[in-house]
Design brief:
Elements lengths: L4 H4 L2 H15 L11 H11 L4 H14 L3 H6 L2 H8 L6 H16 L8 H5 L6 H12 L8 H11 L11 H11 L5 H14 L18 H4 L17 E11 L2 E6 L10 E2 L2 E3 L6 H13 L2 E14 L4 E13 L9 E5 L11 H4 L2 H10 L2
Parallel strand pairs: 1-6
Antiparallel strand pairs: 1-2, 1-4, 2-3, 2-7, 5-6
Length: 367
């Protein structure tokens, strides 16, 4: 098993060089300008699996909508999802909402400063716990995210694959050995910032690295060989048919169950196209199976391509006319008949947003 003996002999120097660099060169980001545990928590949840530039568009508006944890706890779940709309990984929003309610009910509205209590909250795993507890409460917990693993892998030429769950504890142990116990929050942010801005996946700026003297990969010119990764499986692609069902100048939308992918969001009914089934036939069948309505296809609207983390979709979208039947849900948990002007009131998946413009054009053309 790899060790960091070459760094641990001078770990204090490593910490000093890194934190001095961070103080001078870190990016000015809004969540770094606050000591409020709730605001720090919101930022860390948003930053999971999401780029900083994307989070910057959501962070301030979300806090404007829910300035205190009590506002988030008391909010309607749909309002929370609407504020999160487009940020993706919606389980984060649902868990944060539930966690806020628990904090208000059981902790008098104060984010728990005890790591064990905090980690019992929905959606709080090792990363969120370490980040929030170290930054907000100075708890000596090492953060391990993708940026930190990349830095550690290059520092010590670690062969353990960074994308394999079995490697996590190894990286965690090394990060803990390096952690500055006196200022863990700043040190954790420095490690993450180094990975994000200098020790990048491609074209790392080794000449600007404050800890290059400790880096085995730099010394042995093997930077491009680390971190190691287990080859990923091919990402499957699914072909989906979706129907925009119109009746009396209104459109039918349905809401997904709170569990699972895109939980709680609204969408137009549809589903996967079966083998040797046309997209048109699949659209009609899926609408019948999901909402118990007979429809006929009026026109083809568009084709949408969208990528999720573990799969891709190709979505054919049709304008469908209501023929008969009364809505009876099989899968969705709610439905609404809405006007095109009301679409913006509901939280939808990003893939649906890609054809909203075409829907509006279609119904404007037809009056």
């Amino acid at each position: 098993m790899d060790t960091l003996t070459h760094i641990l002999k001078s770990v204090k120097q490593f910490q000093t060089e890194l934190t001095n660099w961070y103080r001078q060169h870190h990016r000015r980001l809004p969540w770094r300008e606050t000591a409020n545990p709730y605001q720090i928590w919101v930022s860390e949840v948003m930053l999971q699996q999401t780029q900083v530039k994307t989070v910057l568009r959501y962070y301030d508006p979300f806090l404007a909508a829910f300035p205190h944890i009590s506002h988030l706890a008391g909010a309607d779940a749909q309002a929370v999802l609407k504020a999160w709309e487009g940020l993706g990984y919606y389980a984060r929003a649902r868990n944060l909402h539930r966690a806020a309610q628990i904090v208000c009910d059981q902790h008098d509205g104060s984010v728990p400063s005890d790591p064990d209590d905090f980690q019992k909250l929905p959606g709080v795993g090792d990363y969120i716990a370490a980040a929030v507890q170290s930054i907000a409460f100075n708890r000596p917990l090492a953060v391990v995210d993708g940026n930190v693993k990349r830095v550690l892998a290059r520092l010590n030429q670690i062969s353990a694959p960074v994308n394999h769950s079995s490697s996590y504890q190894h990286f965690k142990a090394i990060a803990t050995q390096l952690l500055d116990q006196a200022q863990p929050g700043q040190f954790n942010q420095a490690m993450m910032e180094l990975g994000a801005t200098v020790c990048r996946p491609k074209k790392p700026e080794c000449g600007n690295c404050p800890v290059q003297m400790f880096c085995k990969s730099f010394q042995k010119n093997t930077i491009n060989e680390y971190p190691r990764r287990t080859p990923s499986k091919p990402i499957p692609e699914y072909h989906i048919a979706v129907g925009v069902v119109s009746h009396n100048n209104r459109l039918l939308i349905t809401r997904r169950s709170n569990d699972g992918l895109l939980g709680g969001l609204w969408e137009f009914p549809g589903g996967k196209i079966r083998r040797q089934e046309t997209a048109e036939a699949a659209c009609i069948r899926e609408i019948w199976e999901e909402v118990n309505l007979r429809v006929e296809i009026r026109s083809y609207i568009t084709r949408i391509k969208h990528a999720y983390t573990h799969f891709k979709i190709v979505m054919d979208v049709f304008h469908c006319l209501y023929i008969s039947g009364k809505v009876k849900l099989n899968g969705p948990v709610a439905y609404q008949w809405i006007t095109t002007d009301e679409i913006s009131k509901y939280p939808f998946p990003k893939a649906n947003h890609k054809f909203f413009g075409r829907i509006r054009e279609l119904f404007e053309e037809r009056g």
